[in-house]
Each structure stands twice: as C-alpha cells, then as structure tokens.
Design brief:
The protein has two helices and no strands. It is mostly helical and 108 residues long. It is rod-shaped and about 125 Å long. Keywords: Coiled coil, Membrane, Transmembrane, Transmembrane helix. This is Septum formation initiator family protein.
Length: 108
C-alpha cells in the first residue's frame, strides 16, 4: 500500500504542475498576442500621423512663403514709385501727354 501511495502522489503533483504550466503558458501567449495586436495598431496609427504631419508641414511651408511675399508687397506698397508702376501695368493708366500702345499677344 505504501508503494501505491508513493507512485500515485508524484503523478498528482506532476499533473498539478502541468496544469499550472499550461495555464501560465496560456496567459503568456494571450498577453503576447494582445501586445502584438496593440503594437500593430499603434504602428498603423503612427504611420497615418506621420503622413498627416508631412502634409501639414508642406502646407506650413507654403503659407510661410505666401506670408513673406505679402510682407514684401506691403513694404513695396509704401513706395510711391512702385505704386505708379503697378497702376500703369495693371490699369494701363498713363500720365498726361503720354500715348499708350497696346500690342496684341500671341493667341489673342
């Protein structure tokens, strides 16, 4: 009877260890799957945000260029000679006594 007891006790002990090991393995595998899925999703979100950031930086650079051009135009508009050139060019105005010749452009 002692021999039977001695043989049966290690089997139950091993069975319990195996169950705990399987449970621990299952928990670790579940955690690793959750981590992998989370990292995959975050990588996709990160790529989308990098693309959006690149687009916004391009828009910012264009806006800065336009802003600089407008500042330059404001500075020029304080000069009377520049205003006179713009009026002559844009509105085809002339000084008294001047004759304006308009040449047709190609295709018009």
């Amino acid at each position: 009877m002692n021999e039977a007891y001695m043989h049966s006790e290690p089997n139950q002990s091993n069975k319990g260890k195996r169950r705990r090991l399987r449970l621990l393995t299952f928990i670790l595998m579940s955690f690793m799957c959750w981590t992998a899925i989370t990292l995959w999703n975050q990588q996709g979100d990160l790529n989308a945000k990098y693309t959006r950031l690149s687009s916004i930086q391009t828009q910012l650079e264009e806006s800065k260029k336009i802003n600089e051009q407008l500042k330059m135009e404001i500075t020029r508009l304080n000069d009377n000679e520049y205003i006179e050139q713009r009026v002559r060019k844009d509105y085809r105005m002339t000084r008294p006594g001047e004759t304006l010749f308009i040449t047709p452009m190609n295709g018009e």
